C-alpha cells in the first residue's frame, strides 16, 4: 500500500485530510512512520527541546458529566473526595512552585460542565495573578460561551484546553451528556476570542484503530490546528465504566503520536496522561516520534504522573532541554533571572558545590 508523499515545509499544513490518507499513515511500517515524523518534527522544532507545563486541579469532583473515563464524574463511585474551588493564594503558591521546577506554562482545571457566571470573576483574577509570575496560563473549565471566552482572553489567558476525546463515531459510547458539536463550538469560541487552543484526546478506551485515525483527522481538519495537542493514554480508575478495558498496545500509542506530528506539523504534541505506566524507553520513543510537550508533577488533576525529578533524569539521559516559552517576555525573563540570583546570593549557592550529593526535586503533594 502506498502512502501519501512526505510533506515538505512549504505544503505541510493541511486541513483536508481524508480517512484513507490517515489510515495509510497508521499502516506504514513502524520505522518508516517514525522517520517521516522525525523529518516533519525537525522542520518546525528543535528535536531536543520539550515544552514543560504543570497542571493543577482548582476544583475537584462532583462533575455532572458522564465521561466514562473520568473519576471526577459524580455518577461513579471512585472514592474521590470532592473539593471546593481553591483559594487564589493557594493557586499562586503552586504556580510559584511550578515555575521553580522549570515549567513555563501553568494549567488550571476545574471539574465543571461549564463555568457559572458567579465563577468568572474568580477565575479571571486567578489568570491575571498567575500571569504576573511570568508564566503562560492555560485553563480547562468545560464548555465556554463566546462572552466567557472573551473574558478569559482579556484576563490574559494564553491557552484553553478542551479535548475532543475520540472520534465522532465512538464519542457516543464514551459521553452522552454533551455532544461533539458542543465541543467544537467551544473550540470555535476560544479561537474567535484570540486564544491558543489546546485540544487532543484519549486513546486506549476500547476504540478501534479507525477511531484513532478519526480523532486525528478531526483535529487536523479544524480551521486552525490546535497549538497544543495532548495525546492521553487512558488511566484506568476503579469505579469508572472503563476500569477493565483492555490495555492499548504500546506501539499503537507511539504510532498515534507520530501520525499526530505528521498531520499537525507546527503543533506541540503533548505526551500527557498515562506516562507513569510507560517505561523510559517508551517515553523516549514518543519523543522520537514527535512528542515535544509534557506535564511536570506527580499528579494530573486526579491521576498520577511521574515525579518531577524522574523527568529531569530522563531528560538528562536523552539530552533534552526544556523549551523556553515563546510568549515569555524579556521583562519576565529578566525578573526571573534576578529572583534566582538574589535567592542564590542569600544562600551562598551561586556556585555549584561538587562535594554535595545531588538531591531530588520535591514532589508536589
Give a summary of the structure in a few sentences.
The chain has helices spanning 19-27, 30-44, 88-100, 120-131, 146-155, 168-174, 180-192, 209-220, 250-263, 280-288, 308-318, 330-346, and strands spanning 49-59, 105-110, 136-140, 159-161, 196-198, 201-203, 228-233, 268-271, 293-296, 299-300, 303-304, 321-322. It is an alpha/beta fold and 365 residues long. The termini are far apart.
What is the gyration radius calculated from CA atoms? Answer: 20 Å
Biggest pleated-sheet summary: 10 strands, parallel
Tell how many strands the DSSP assignment holds. 12
Distance between the termini: 50 Å
Give the class from helix and strand content and strand pairing.
Answer: alpha/beta
Taken as a percent bin, the fraction of beta residues is: 5-15%
Helix proportion range: 25-40%
Give the overall shape, derived from the CA principal axes: globular
Can you give a write-up of this model?
This protein has 365 residues and is an alpha/beta fold. 39% of the residues lie in helices and 14% in strands. The protein has 12 helices and 12 strands. The strands form 2 sheets. Strands 1, 2, 3, 4, 5, 6, 7, 8, 9 and 12 form a 10-stranded parallel beta sheet that branches. A two-stranded antiparallel sheet has the order 10-11. Helix 4 packs parallel to helix 5. It starts with 18 loop residues before the first helix and ends in a 19-residue tail after the last helix. The C terminus is likely disordered.
Amino acid at each position: 500500500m502506498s502512502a501519501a508523499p512526505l510533506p515538505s515545509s512549504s505544503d505541510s499544513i493541511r486541513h483536508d485530510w481524508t480517512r484513507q490518507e490517515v489510515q495509510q499513515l497508521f499502516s506504514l511500517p513502524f520505522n518508516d512512520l517514525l522517520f517521516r515524523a522525525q523529518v516533519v518534527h525537525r522542520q518546525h522544532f528543535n528535536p531536543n527541546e520539550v515544552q514543560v507545563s504543570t497542571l493543577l486541579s482548582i476544583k475537584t469532583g462532583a462533575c455532572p458529566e458522564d465521561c466514562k473515563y473520568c473519576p471526577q464524574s459524580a455518577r461513579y463511585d471512585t472514592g474521590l473526595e470532592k473539593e471546593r474551588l481553591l483559594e487564589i493564594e493557594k493557586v499562586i503558591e503552586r504556580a510559584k512552585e511550578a515555575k521553580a521546577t522549570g515549567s513555563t506554562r501553568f494549567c488550571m482545571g476545574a471539574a465543571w460542565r461549564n463555568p457559572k457566571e458567579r465563577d468568572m470573576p474568580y477565575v479571571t483574577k486567578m489568570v491575571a495573578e498567575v500571569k504576573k509570575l511570568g508564566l503562560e496560563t492555560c485553563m480547562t473549565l468545560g464548555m465556554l460561551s463566546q462572552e466567557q471566552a472573551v473574558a478569559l482572553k482579556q484576563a490574559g489567558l494564553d491557552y484553553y484546553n478542551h479535548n475532543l476525546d475520540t472520534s465522532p463515531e465512538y464519542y457516543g459510547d464514551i459521553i452522552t451528556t454533551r455532544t461533539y458539536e458542543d465541543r467544537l463550538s467551544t473550540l470555535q469560541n476560544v479561537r474567535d476570542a484570540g486564544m491558543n487552543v489546546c485540544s487532543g484526546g484519549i486513546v486506549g478506551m476500547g476504540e478501534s484503530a479507525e477511531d484513532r485515525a478519526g480523532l486525528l483527522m478531526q483535529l487536523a481538519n479544524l480551521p486552525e490546528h490546535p497549538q497544543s495537542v495532548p495525546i492521553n493514554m487512558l488511566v484506568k480508575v476503579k469505579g469508572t465504566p472503563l476500569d477493565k478495558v483492555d490495555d492499548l498496545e504500546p506501539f499503537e500509542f507511539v504510532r498515534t503520536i507520530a501520525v499526530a506530528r505528521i498531520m499537525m506539523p507546527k503543533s506541540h504534541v503533548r505526551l500527557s496522561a498515562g506516562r507513569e505506566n510507560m517505561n523510559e524507553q517508551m517515553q523516549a520513543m514518543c519523543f522520537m516520534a514527535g512528542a515535544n510537550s509534557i506535564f511536570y508533577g506527580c499528579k494530573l488533576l486526579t491521576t498520577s504522573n511521574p515525579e518531577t525529578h524522574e523527568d529531569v533524569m530522563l531528560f538528562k539521559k536523552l539530552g533534552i532541554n526544556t523549551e523556553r516559552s515563546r510568549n515569555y517576555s524579556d521583562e519576565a525573563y529578566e525578573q526571573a533571572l534576578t529572583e534566582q540570583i538574589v535567592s542564590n546570593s542569600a544562600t551562598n549557592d551561586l556556585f555549584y558545590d561538587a562535594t554535595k550529593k545531588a538531591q531530588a526535586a520535591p514532589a508536589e503533594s
